[in-house]
Design brief:
The protein has a nine-stranded mixed β-sheet with strand order 1-2-3-5-4-6-7-10-11, with helices on both faces. It has a two-stranded antiparallel ribbon with strand order 8-9. Helix content is about 35%, strand content about 20%. The relative contact order is 0.13. The longest helix is centred in the last third of the chain and has 15 residues. The protein is built from twelve helices and eleven strands. The protein is of the alpha/beta class.
Length: about 325
């Protein structure tokens, strides 16, 4: 049943679909005509000590990614959450760069990666598998946060040979309905609006305790102005809309997919998370047979952003116990 739904009968679940409709490219994205699927183009950075920003063509779309560490080290692939960007991993990635070649992929519809008409989760998982193959990362330590955790699970379930170890940050068998509904304030239609201040109003409605400086910082990092003068988030809100439809409408299929994960898996939940409950994380632990659950005291939904040292510690401990000998365990 898993193979049929993910590869055959349901076009949306196919891991090699033909994507119809236009491909939307953000104004700041640079594309090269005739780029092959494995061709990588480096974008120079003034800060040589920071990550290298690169682009790669995968499955007909152009993706931005960032790379830390040395190319001959074992590989770690980081997947951001919904409505985020790859550089949200910057602090955690810097902690891993001494042991790993670290790649943070900007997923479809986010940041400088292309937009598409389809954001069905199995489409996004297929992007990840293509990235692992094209960059020669397998077998990779795959780390996914929130939405990225969902895509990491699906990728590992469908192609276990690509993934050496799986780390899921603050994602569970289901999301808490009240928090999902509250978050939807930020991503309601219309997606593009004439005035930048509309997003200030949405942020204030989402969290009245946000200070003006905090709101301005969020807007500066996460808004884009289009050639016609309108403003939007730096991601396609259809990602979140289609993901929500999958989560609410495909629970039996989702749980069946999860149960096919064979990879050693660490589930890390922030103990104070309002997005993922203990019960949801514990159910995910039951569904993935070879998994363990750690709940980090004082942590919320954004461990890698606000508590990178704590996440680094539990990941290192897990990999030292469970990863294959080819990982540099002595340096962990």
């Amino acid at each position: 049943m898993l193979e049929r739904n993910m590869r055959g009968e349901d076009k949306r679940g196919s891991f090699a679909p033909t994507i119809s409709g236009p491909c939307y490219r953000p104004a700041a994205t640079v594309c090269w005509a005739g780029m092959k699927s494995s061709r990588v183009t480096k974008t120079p950075r003034a800060d040589a000590a920071g990550p290298q920003a690169k682009t790669i063509s995968l499955r007909g779309l152009t993706f931005r990614y960032y790379e830390w560490g040395q190319a001959d080290h074992p590989s770690m692939l980081l997947l951001h959450g919904g409505a985020e960007r790859a550089l949200s991993w910057e602090r955690f990635a810097a902690l891993q760069a001494g042991q790993f070649r670290v790649i943070a992929l900007e997923q479809r519809g986010h940041g400088e990666s292309d937009w598409s008409d389809s954001y069905y989760p199995t489409e996004c998982a297929a992007d990840i598998a293509a990235c692992i193959k094209s960059l020669g990362l397998a077998p990779v330590v795959l780390v996914g946060y929130s939405m990225g955790g969902r895509h990491a699970i699906l990728c590992s379930a469908a192609q276990p040979a690509l993934v050496r170890a799986l780390v899921i940050e603050d994602y569970g068998a289901y999301l808490e309905g009240d928090e999902v509904e509250r978050t939807s304030i930020l991503y309601r239609d219309p997606q593009r609006v004439p005035e930048r201040e509309e997003f200030r109003r949405r942020l204030k409605e989402y969290n009245p305790s946000f200070a003006d400086e905090q709101i301005e910082r969020i807007m500066t990092k996460n808004l884009r102005q289009w050639p016609d003068g309108r403003w939007s988030w730096h991601y396609d809100i259809r990602c979140l809309q289609q993901a929500r439809a999958f989560i609410t409408g495909q629970q039996p299929l989702w749980r069946q997919m999860v149960s096919h994960v064979q990879t050693p898996t660490l589930i890390v939940r922030g103990k104070d998370s309002k997005m993922i409950s203990h019960e949801s994380a514990a159910l995910l632990r039951q569904l993935i047979k070879d998994s363990e659950l750690v709940e980090e005291p004082g942590g919320n939904h954004h461990l890698h952003r606000y508590m990178p040292d704590a996440l680094d510690r539990v990941v290192r401990e897990f990999l030292a116990r469970r990863a294959e000998p080819s990982l540099p365990l002595t340096s962990l």
